[in-house]
Amino acid sequence: MAQDGIGARVARKEDKRFITGKGRYVDDMRVAGMKHVAFVRSPYAHAKVGGIDTEQARNMPGVLAVLTGSELVADGIGNLICGWMVHSKDGTPMNMGAWPALAPDVVRFVGQAVAMVIAETRGEARDAADVVAVEWEELPTITDPAKALTDGAPQLHPEAKGNLIYDWEIGDKAAADKALSEAAHVTRMEIVNNRLVPNAMEPRAALAQYDAADDHFTLWTTSQNPHVARLVLSAFYNVAPEHKLRVIAPDVGGGFGSKIFIYPEEVACLWAARKTGLAVKWTGDRSEAFLTDAHGRDHVTVAEMAFDANNRITAFKVDTIANFGAYMSLFSSSVPTYLYATLLSGQYDIPTIHCNVRGVYTNTAPVDAYRGAGRPEATYVVERMMETAARELGVAPPELRRTNFIREFPHQTPVIMNYDAGDYEASLSAALSASDYAGFGERKAEAARRGKLRGIGLSCYIEACGIAPSQAVGSLGAGVGLWESAEVRVNPVGTIEVLTGSHSHGQGHETTFAQLVAERLGVPIDNVSIVHGDTDKVQFGMGTYGSRSGAVGMSAISKAIDKVEAKAKKLAAHLLEAAEGDIEIADGEVRVAGTDKKLGWHEVCLAAYTAHNLPEGMEPGLKEGSFYDPANFTFPAGAYVCEVEVDPDTGHTEIIQFVAADDFGRVINPMIVEGQVHGGIAQGVGQAILEGCVYDPESGQLITASYNDYAMPRAHDLPSFKVSTTETICPSNPIGMKGCGEAGAIGTPPAVINAITDAIDNNDLAMPATPEKVWRALRAGATPMRQAAE
Amino acid sequence: MVTVTMTVNGRQVSKEVEDRRLLVDFLREDLELTGTHVGCDTSQCGACVVHLDGKAIKSCTILAAQADGTSITTIEGLANGAELHPLQAAFKEHHGLQCGYCTPGMIMSGVDIIRRHEGQLDEDTVRHELEGNICRCTGYHNIVKAILAAAQEMHGEVRQAAE
Ligand code: FES
Ligand code: FES
C-alpha cells in the first residue's frame, strides 16, 4: 500500500487554507463594480401582495435598482421546480403549486421574498429594503400538517385541493392488516419527528455577473452541486442558457442538504445581473437562513408492529403525514417516500410492510432533505418501535433485535430495497462491548445512590446511500440520473489532476480522493490535486449529498484510473519491449514484473506527451474520463448505544457515554470518517434533546428564528464519542465503499430517546427532550409504555 | 463618518468608515481580511472572534470606532510567518475542522482559552469555555482534542523556556 493510500490517517491537504484564514467562500469574493442585494421579505405567513411602492426606496442613498416579482414574471423567469415526480396511489401525479422566485401576488410563508433592492453597499441595500412599501392583505394561516388536511382549513394552492400534495403508499396493506389481526403482540406508537433547521455555519450567498460583450453569465454560489444548479437554472428557470452559464461553488461552509437546492435568491440575482448589467452579491444573514433555508424532517406517524409468539416481527404498518411547507422544494417529494418508506425494514427480516404517506402544504418554510433525508425519519420510527416492543415483551432490547436481524445477503425487503451486504450482529456486538452494556445495571445503581436516573438506549440503523442507479431512480420518478463523472489528467511530468463532479463542503475530498489516486498509481498525494465545484472546469457532475461522493464519485475516478492505467501499461510495454500483462505500476515506477527493467512513472507520462514513440495507433496524451453509474444503492449500517443521566429535580439530561459502531465498507481515511461520524452524532443529539423549529400556530410566525431561540448543540452539550468501524465490503462498487456522512444523524436520535425514556421509565416523550419535557414526563407519574402493552 | 486607526496583525491602518460600521465588516470589507467570518446576527456563533489587545472578542459585537487605537489580531496574523501557531497545527493534526467556516473563530477562542489557563486545562473546562462558538460539522470532539494538545505543547514550551 502507498504510505498515504487507502486506509491511512492522512492529515487533510485542504486544511492549511482554512486554519490560516485563506479559505475562499462566496461572501469573500469580490468582482469589479460589484453591488449588493437585499431582499424585501414577507412579514406574514400568508398574504395577498397588493401594490408595491418602490418610490421612496429608489431615492435612498446608494440605491441603483428595485425589482419586483411582477417584473420577474413578465421577463419569463420560470417557477421553481420539484425534480422528483411522485404519484398518488390512485395514479394521479402530485399536486404542485407555483413557486415564483419573487412572489408577485401571494406569499405563503414568513420570509418569502417579493422584491429586491440593489445598492452600492450592503447597508444601503438593507436600509432601502426596509422602506419598500408593500400592500399586504393578510390571509388565514395553517402550520400543523394534520390540521391542514381537515375540512375548512386555509387553502394554500389552488392546484392542491385540501392542501394534499399526494397520498402515496408502498407495500401490501391487506397482508399487513391480516398479520396485525393475527399477531401475538402488537406494539403501537404515535411518533413525531421534529422539524429542524440545517444551520450550516456559512449562510447562503450568491454573486452573479453578466458579461454583455460575451453574453456570458457567472454565478458564484453556496451549492453542493454546481452542475445541477446550472442545469436547473437554464432548463427550467430561464435565467441563462446552459452553455453560457458558469456556476462556481468555491469553499462552502457546510451544507447538510440545505445547499443542494436551487433557491429563489440565486435565480433572482442572476436575473437581476442581466437586467441591470451590474454584478450583484447577496449574502444571507442568520435570520434569513432560519426563515428561508429548506428545513428538515417534520413527520407525524402512527406505526404498528406485529410479533408472533417467538418475538419475530410478522408485519409493520406505518401511516405518515409529511409537512412540505409552503412550496415543493427541489427534492422534497422523494424524502418522505422513496428515501423513507423504502428503509422501514431497518436491519430486520420483516415479511410484510405497508406504508402510507400524505404530503401536505402548510404556511411554513419549504421542507426538503436534511442530513440523512428520510433515512433518519425511518430509523427513528423503526428503532423507537423496537425498543418499545422489547420493553413491552419483556425481552432485552439487543435480544429482540438479534431475533429479527437479517442474516443472509443479498436480502430483498418488501419495500424495494435489495440489501447487498452487511453483518448486523458484528456492529451490535462491537457497540455492546465498547459501551459495557452488560455492566449497565451497576452503573444505574451507582447513579441512583447519587440521586440520578440512568438510562441506556440502543439503535440499529440502516441507510441506503450512494443514491442510484439512474435507471432505478428514473423509474421511481427522479428527474435526473444519479451517476457521477470524473476525469483523470496525468500531466507530462507525472503529476495528476483529478476533476470530479462531486463537491466538497467539509468532507475532505481533496485528501481522500488523492489517497485513492496515490494508492492506485503509486504517486505521493502531494502530486495529486482535486478540482471540483466549477462547471467550466469539470465536464459534468451531480454533486454531493446522500453520502454519494465516495461510493459514486470515487468509483467514477477509479474507472477513469483504470483507463489511464491500461494506457500507461500499454505504452510502457511498448517502450520496455515487454508483454502488457507483465507491467506493474507502483512506488513511482513502471516495472516489468520479475525483471529489473523499469521506467520512472514520469518517464512514461512524458513519453505519452512527446509522442515520439507510441504503439501503433495510440493517441498521444494520458487523460481519461468516466461516467460511473452504480449497480445498486449502498447500505451502511451500524449500532449506537447512548447512556444518559437525568437529574430528576431539573429534567436535565447529560449524555454520559455515546458509542457508535458503523459498517461503512472500505474506509479510505479513518480520521476523516470518524470526523464525519462525530458531526452526525452531534446533529442527532441536537435533534433528540435540543433542536426544534417552532412556528406560532395562529400567526405562522417563526418563533425560533435566531440562535437565541433555536438551541444549537454546543461543546458542553456533548460528550467525547467512542466510534469504531466493522467492515463488510460493498460488492456494488469497485472500491467497496458504502458512505459515512449521514450515519451519525440517522442512528443517534432513537438511541438518545430510548436512553432517556429508559431513565425516566416513561415512554411518552417527544423530541427535542428538553429539561422541561423530561421533567413533566417524570412528574406525569404514568408509564404509558406499560399501559400501551397488550 | 469617523476615522479609525488601529494596528491589525502588526500593521497600522487608518480609514474613514460609517459610524455604524462593525469591526467585523471593517476587517472583511475594508481591509479584505476575509478569514474572520460572520455566522449569525445575534452574537451567538463565534465565527467572528478576533483578539483585541490580546483578548478574544466577537468582532460582530463592537463597532470599528470602538476599536480605535487598539491592536487587533485576526486569524491571518496568528502564524509566525510560515510557521503555524501550535493551535493551528493541532487543528490540522487532530482533524479539528471540516468545512472550515467556524475554524478561524474557534482557533482565536482556543488561543485565548489556553492563554488564560496557561495550559492547565481539562476537557470540561475547554467544553465549557467554548460556549460562545458553534461548529455544525465536527461535533467538537476533535476541536477539544486539538485545544488540549496545543495547550500541553505550549505549556511545555513555556516551562522549557523558563528552565
Ligand atoms: S458572527 Fe459574531 S457571534 Fe456570530
Ligand atoms: S468546521 Fe464547519 S462549522 Fe465548524
UniProtKB/TrEMBL annotation, chain A:
SMART domains: Ald_Xan_dh_C. Residues 20-140 form the Aldehyde oxidase/xanthine dehydrogenase a/b hammerhead domain. Keywords: Molybdenum, Oxidoreductase. It comes from the Bacteria. Its EC number is 1.2.7.4. GO terms for molecular function: anaerobic carbon-monoxide dehydrogenase activity. Pfam families: Ald_Xan_dh_C, MoCoBD_1, MoCoBD_2. Gene3D superfamilies: Aldehyde oxidase/xanthine dehydrogenase, a/b hammerhead, Aldehyde oxidase/xanthine dehydrogenase, molybdopterin binding domain. This is Carbon-monoxide dehydrogenase large subunit. It comes from Rhodopseudomonas julia.
Automatic annotation (TrEMBL), chain B:
Keywords: 2Fe-2S, Iron, Iron-sulfur, Metal-binding, Oxidoreductase. GO terms for molecular function: anaerobic carbon-monoxide dehydrogenase activity. Its EC number is 1.2.7.4. Residues 2-78 form the 2Fe-2S ferredoxin-type domain. Pfam families: Fer2, Fer2_2. It comes from the Bacteria. It is an enzyme of class 1 (oxidoreductase). This is Carbon-monoxide dehydrogenase small subunit. It comes from Rhodopseudomonas julia. The lineage of its organism: Bacteria, Pseudomonadati, Pseudomonadota, Alphaproteobacteria, Hyphomicrobiales.
